[in-house]
Amino acid sequence: MQAYQHILLATDFGEGAECIVRRAHDMAERHQARLTLLHVMDYLPIADAAYGPGVPFDAEQSQQLLENAHRRLTSMAKGLAIDESQCRVELGSPKEDIIRIAEELGVDLIVLGTHGKHGLQLLLGSTSSSVLHHTQCDVLAIRLKKAS
Fold first, then answer.
1. 102-119 residue pLDDT tens
2. Which residues pair with 113 in a beta bridge?
3. Is residue 100 part of a domain?
4. CA distance to 56, 109, 133, per residue, from 141 (Å)
5. What pLDDT is stored for residue 126 in this prediction?
6. CA distance 139 to 8
7. Distance from C-alpha of 93 to C-alpha of 111, rounded to nearest angstrom
């Protein structure tokens, strides 16, 4: 098996994120690979009739949320001695943008968490499932255990 060269860690900062970060970091060290950290903030426009459909209700608030996400991601990176230039925060669709960014960066492994959803949740589609089925590179989906 060929060693991975560039690993993309996609995080939603949810429960279990630190476990996923440690696993991705360990794999990057083991393979001597570059590690890029990514957070895609889901774009959920709130239509304001005064501006037309699909325009965010509060662009300033969206920018503030992006800045907060960037601070969290760079803090995570700092704890792993990863340069801030290896952090990306995007506003969009996690299902689409994780795949797009992986292709742009030429990564050969995407690491993310999964809750192992079933039934209706599965039919609606999870981010990890979408990434797994639509990307060209390897995907490591780390199962997150429910808190007891």
1. 999 999 999 998 765 544
2. 142
3. yes
4. 32, 10, 12
5. 78
6. 9
7. 17
Residues in the chain, pLDDT under 70: 1, 44-59, 115-125, 146-148
Q: Which pLDDT score, from 0 to 100, does residue 124 have?
A: 39
The whole domain housing 46 covers: 6-143
CATH number for 94: 3.40.50.620
Q: What is the pLDDT of residue 114?
A: 78
Provide the pLDDT for residue 122.
43
Judging by beta carbons within 10 Å of its beta carbon (0-12, 13-18, 19+), is residue 100 exposed, middle or buried?
A: middle
> What single string gives the DSSP state of each residue in the chain?
-PPPSEEEEE----TTHHHHHHHHHHHHHHHT-EEEEEEEEE-----BTTTBTT--S-HHHHHHHHHHHHHHHHHHHHHTT--GGGEEEEEE-HHHHHHHHHHHHT-SEEEEEE----THHHHH--HHHHHHHH-SSEEEEEEPPPP-
In a domain, 115, yes or no: yes
Any domain includes 123: yes
The Cα–Cα gap between 114 and 141 comes to: 6
Q: Answer whether residue 118 is part of any domain.
A: yes
Number of domains in the chain: 1
